[in-house]
Amino acid sequence: MPPTRPTDPAGLLAAALRRDPSAPLVTAYDDATGERVELSATTLANWVAKTANLLQDEFDVGPGSTVAVALPVHWQTAAVLLGVWSCGAAVLDTAAEDDGRLDAADVVLAAHDRLAPLEEQDLPDLMGLSLHPLGMGMTGYAGPARDFALEVRGHGDVFTPYQQPDPASPGLSAGGLQLSLGALAGAAEELAGRLGLAAGDRVLVDERTAEEAGPVAWLLAPLAAGASLVLVRHPDPAALRGRAEAERVTATLGVRIEGIRELGRPA
To answer: Origin, by domain of life (predicted)?
Structure first.
């Protein structure tokens, strides 16, 4: 019997875990700092479970909840997004520091360097992420936000939602885009086909393209296709070809590297 088609983003991650739990699923570079972090499906699923348990146990996040995410494209952002969706909650994805919709969220998760202006607003529960490559906490921070890295460690590696996610529940609000959990999975599958993503692809995505395209493109479509990701923040153009060769990249999104297929463009 063929496997059941995933009906929400958590199902896309579960399918990746079944396909190959140990192979690299997300490899993240930051050319400004020299960082490289590699996560297998098992490691990413561990971070997702811990994040979901934190949100559910500490903030009562579940179906009907909204979690605002003020984070850059990053491997920890992938864990946060999938953790929210595992709870059956909706992501409010914002790139605007003063976005007035944030006060409509139940919890706000923001990068350390985004906290100062957010602390001045009348927001719900606020958590900060250091985005440290080894998952360490926010060095020198003394503000009111709770430290994601320190709190997430104490939560379980397996997640069971109190209420099963409903594919018809809200899943993503980003600008004018509104998608249910089920529509997110469907959109990811449709986009993967439209871009020409294939199972086993190793896809290099730069930060700018990922920010412009949104999480359906940079995170969920590769998961739906059975592909893996090479995310690059602050990309150094001179390093891209060597990196693509070292990482055995088979396709790129928003980046042109001679001899490697560019997704969404005719061959």
So the answer is: Bacteria
pLDDT in tens, 108-151: 999 999 999 898 887 879 999 999 988 889 999 999 999 999 99
- Is 267 among the domain residues? no
Give dist(CA 152, CA 135) in Å, integer: 10
Order across the sheet with 261-262: list the strands.
35-40, 24-30, 228-233, 202-206, 251-253, 261-262
Residue 109 located in a structural domain: yes
Count up the domains in the chain and report the number: 1
Is the pTM here over 0.70, yes or no? yes
Phi, psi of 80 (to 5 degrees): -65, -50
Contact 85, 181 (CB under 8 A): yes
Does residue 67 lie within any of the structural domains?
yes
Cβ neighbors of 51 (< 8 A, separation 6 or more) are 79, 80, 82, 83, 84, 86, 152, 155
What are phi and psi for residue 263, nearest 5 degrees? -65, 140
Domain with residue 32: its CATH number is: 3.40.50.12780
Residue 216 DSSP class: I
Q: Is 142 helix (H, G, I), strand (E, B) or coil?
A: coil
- To which residue do tokens 């811990």 refer? 50
- CA quadruple 63, 65, 66, 69: dihedral positive or negative? negative
The tokens for 60 are 């009562």
pLDDT tens-digit map of 70-108: 999 999 999 999 999 999 999 998 754 345 578 789 999
Tell me which residue range forms the domain holding 67.
9-262
